[in-house]
Amino acid sequence: MANAFFEDAFGLSGRVALVTGGGGALGRAIALALARAGADVAVSDYSVKDAETVAQAIIGAGRRGLAVEVDVTRSNSVDAMTKEVLSAFGHIDILINSAGVSGHIPAEGMSDEEWNRVIAINLTGTFYCCRSVGSEMIKREKGSIINIASMSGIIVNKGSNNAHYCASKGGVIMLTKSLAEQWAKHNIRVNSISPGYIRTPLSIPVIEEPSFRAFLKTATPMGRPGSPEELMGLAVFLASDASSFMTGSNILIDGGYTVL
Ligand SMILES: NC(=O)c1ccc[n+]([C@@H]2O[C@H](COP(=O)([O-])OP(=O)(O)OC[C@H]3O[C@@H](n4cnc5c(N)ncnc54)[C@H](O)[C@@H]3O)[C@@H](O)[C@H]2O)c1
Predict the structure, then answer these.
(1) 195 lines ligand 1 (CB under 6 A)
(2) Domain around 60
(3) Is 0.85 surpassed by the pTM of this model?
(4) Which residues contact 47 (CB under 8 A, 6 or more apart)?
(5) Residue 257 placed within a domain
(6) Bridge partner list, 96
(7) Does residue 98 lie in a domain region?
(8) Nearest Cα to 177, choosing from 196, 195, 153?
(9) Pick the catalytic residue: 46, 165, 197, 257?
(10) 138-187 tens-digit pLDDT
């Protein structure tokens, strides 16, 4: 009886998920978690080669997997991605927006191009994907959207010179809340996950640097960065019926960084 409840509530059998930035570290972990919970998963990325590697792992796990090339900064590319997933899988129940980039340049010297690059991928790209897939979800009156924001959407990373990144992630959190309000009537839930420092190939050079490690020990109650796998449980929870009364929430996974 108890097991049936958990399988029904947390299970994703028969669901179709689309993970943007799915070729990256966090997108990959989330895509695999959704597949393990029973979902078929389309993996989209600017790097179709990376997306293909993850799609193959999903197929290896016994689910349907699909790799799709996308540039989230171009709405026609995003709409083509949605169309490709629909023609392969028929519908989309779950959208994870994980495509994103960062940058570190003092604001007074930041070029128009650098500002626009980060805003275009992190914020505008997330909007394009929500709009494109959300329109399809509205037709079926069903869906769960999870935007990967960041703790940098609510706090500033000391010394990181990343005003564009912080602004983009703050924007993603408010975009999430606005869409949650607009689409609740269509039975579509929209939430965001805000990770703190997570150990990924891209962040390792920074977070393994001795002075940063010392900083993180004092700046984070748990004293360490997280791993991509530590996002898996929350992603499955938010995608599943177990979170059926949650929408517009921004959930931090940061080892306690933001409590200090
Ligand atoms: N790693 C962390 O510590 C951390 C912390 C907080 C938030 N995040 C957020 O999590 C998300 C994933 O980060 P990650 O660590 O997996 O980084 P990552 O670089 O491993 O993955 C990001 C993916 O996005 C893709 N991408 C970039 N530009 C794109 C575009 N225009 N169109 C389509 N895809 C594009 C990249 O090809 C890459 O595969 C990002 O939004 C990031 O801001 C990461």
Answers:
(1) yes
(2) 2-252
(3) yes
(4) 23
(5) no
(6) 19, 146
(7) yes
(8) 153
(9) 165
(10) 999 999 999 999 999 999 999 999 999 999 999 999 999 999 999 999 99
